[in-house]
Amino acid sequence: MAVFTNKQIVGARGDAESLLSIVEANIGTFNEINTATLMSQLRQLPRQTIAKVKRDRRYFDLIQRLPAVMEEGGVAVVAITCHALVKLDERDTADAALSYAELRADTLLEEATPQNVANLAWSMARRGWRATDSPRFVKGVEARAESLVKEGSTQEVANTAWAFAKMKADAPGLFWEIDKRADWLVKNGHPQHIANTAWAFGVLGEKGTKLFKTIDERAGWLVSKGK
């Protein structure tokens, strides 16, 4: 049943009424994957559509179910849910979800992918959290810095760096690993990813010797691509 429901959610292709109808018909049997998939679909809706959806009783029923869903799910479910709640501007619920993620950070980060980490970090930063609000999360990311940078995409690495700068998070190990892979980042990253990363180094006072040297060497290309 859960697999069929997930196919229905994906098949709705971002149509708000279809998604809400699926909620109404299946909310009692939703598992954590169904809910995370639905939240992922909702966060991609246009802003005006989201405003309309948020006035719907079926949406309210879904939001009320989220605390239990997060307890049942792993890091991917938690990360997607937090990211979606911030995108949907569900401020109180998002803060509660992020607090839960911080509380479970030690275990969640053991299995987190770079995308999971980037989603959580972005969500915390967008909600105005600081490193003092999420010490377990910051410490856990710092401990996994090498693998997260090595395995992550340029966007995931850049988003995490940007979020840590916004959070005023002291993470020298993370930025050391990013600087070590500066050639990869600048060669493969979108100019916006590179700009966000450079900004993060500057805000936190990280030297970024290799990063800024590589940016300088490819300045002409970055300017032309960044127009």
The whole-angstrom Rg is 19 Å
Main beta sheet? none
How many strands appear in the DSSP assignment?
0
- Overall shape: it is globular
Topology order in helix (H) and strand (E) letters: HHHHHHHHHHHHHHHHH
* Structure classification: mainly alpha
Proportion of beta-strand residues: under 5%
**Would you tell me the overall average pLDDT?**
94
Low-confidence stretches: none
Tell me roughly what share of residues is in helical segments: over 70%
Write the layout of secondary structure elements.
Blueprint: H1 2-11, H2 16-26, H3 32-42, H4 47-53, H5 57-72, H6 75-87, H7 91-103, H8 105-111, H9 114-126, H10 135-143, H11 145-151, H12 154-166, H13 172-180, H14 182-188, H15 191-204, H16 209-217, H17 219-225
Structure, explained:
The protein is mostly helical. It is built from 17 helices and no strands. It has helices spanning 2-11, 16-26, 32-42, 47-53, 57-72, 75-87, 91-103, 105-111, 114-126, 135-143, 145-151, 154-166, 172-180, 182-188, 191-204, 209-217, 219-225. The longest helix is centred in the N-terminal third of the chain and has 16 residues, at 57-72. The chain starts with a helix and ends with a helix.
Name its key features.
single chain; 17 helices; 78% helix
Summarize the structure.
The chain is an all-alpha fold. The protein has 17 helices and no strands.
